[in-house]
From TrEMBL:
<keyword id="KW-0804">Transcription</keyword>
<dbReference type="InterPro" id="IPR039538">
    <property type="entry name" value="BetI_C"/>
</dbReference>
<keyword id="KW-0805">Transcription regulation</keyword>
<dbReference type="InterPro" id="IPR009057">
    <property type="entry name" value="Homeodomain-like_sf"/>
</dbReference>
<protein>
    <submittedName>
        <fullName>TetR/AcrR family transcriptional regulator</fullName>
    </submittedName>
</protein>
<keyword id="KW-0238">DNA-binding</keyword>
<dbReference type="Pfam" id="PF00440">
    <property type="entry name" value="TetR_N"/>
</dbReference>
<feature type="DNA-binding region" description="H-T-H motif">
    <location>
        <begin position="31"/>
        <end position="50"/>
    </location>
</feature>
<dbReference type="InterPro" id="IPR036271">
    <property type="entry name" value="Tet_transcr_reg_TetR-rel_C_sf"/>
</dbReference>
<dbReference type="Pfam" id="PF13977">
    <property type="entry name" value="TetR_C_6"/>
</dbReference>
<feature type="domain" description="HTH tetR-type">
    <location>
        <begin position="8"/>
        <end position="68"/>
    </location>
</feature>
<dbReference type="InterPro" id="IPR001647">
    <property type="entry name" value="HTH_TetR"/>
</dbReference>
<dbReference type="InterPro" id="IPR050109">
    <property type="entry name" value="HTH-type_TetR-like_transc_reg"/>
</dbReference>
<keyword id="KW-0678">Repressor</keyword>
Length: 203
């Protein structure tokens, strides 16, 4: 009986090693040897599982996008009221600071999306998945009369995600110009105006 392949397990280990290396060193000057050293193997051994560093980083990006989206969806899943769902959604979309591993990873890999269509496609999928999450909350709030939307749900949702992205980039800088609580308050402010709702739970 043939022994089961360890390739999937080894690839998962390499994705983890690459993830940590990107966060520590950044992606612009990243070398295959950097990841191999972190994984405790030679560059040649790494190439047995991934033909190139780009192939490995594609899997890193795919895994990071999925983790981020699943975490956001889980944050709102337990909330029934659109106001609570909106607050939870906004709270789950911002980095906790410059050392937020997952958000830093996504921003770093986003620089490759400027040049590589495959990376850009996953970056777009990430954006649209977040937009859909907001659209669902906005439509539910409008349907129940809790929200009185100032624009169509897609436009508001896209603005919310874009605000998160902009503030998130600031929060992950070496010297952030504002802290997370301020950024969250700013996004919430736009959400209140665009929904004509205080977003507070009813008394």
């Amino acid at each position: 009986m043939a022994r089961p392949s360890k390739a999937p397990e080894r690839r998962a280990e390499l994705v983890a090693a690459a993830r940590h290396t990107v966060v520590e060193r950044g992606v612009l000057n990243l070398k295959l040897r950097d990841v191999a050293d972190h994984a405790g193997m030679s560059p040649g051994s790494l190439l047995y599982y991934y033909p190139s560093l780009s192939d490995l980083l594609e899997d890193v990006q795919q895994e990071a996008v999925e983790r981020f989206c699943v975490a956001r969806e889980a944050a709102v899943a337990g909330e029934a009221d659109p106001r609570a769902r909106m607050r939870a959604m906004i709270g789950s979309g911002l980095p906790n600071g410059k050392n937020d591993e997952l958000c830093v990873l996504l921003y770093e890999l986003g620089t490759i999306a400027r040049r590589e269509p495959a990376y850009a496609a996953r970056h777009i999928a990430l954006y649209e998945r977040q937009v859909r999450g907001y659209v669902g909350i906005l439509e539910a709030g409008a349907a129940t009369g809790i929200f009185d939307l100032t624009d169509d749900p897609v436009t508001i949702a896209r603005n919310l995600v874009t605000l998160e992205d902009g503030y998130g980039l600031h929060l992950t800088q070496a010297v952030p110009p504002l802290d997370r609580s301020v950024a969250e308050a700013m996004v919430l402010s736009y959400a209140r105006v665009s929904t004509r709702c205080s977003l507070e739970d009813p008394a």
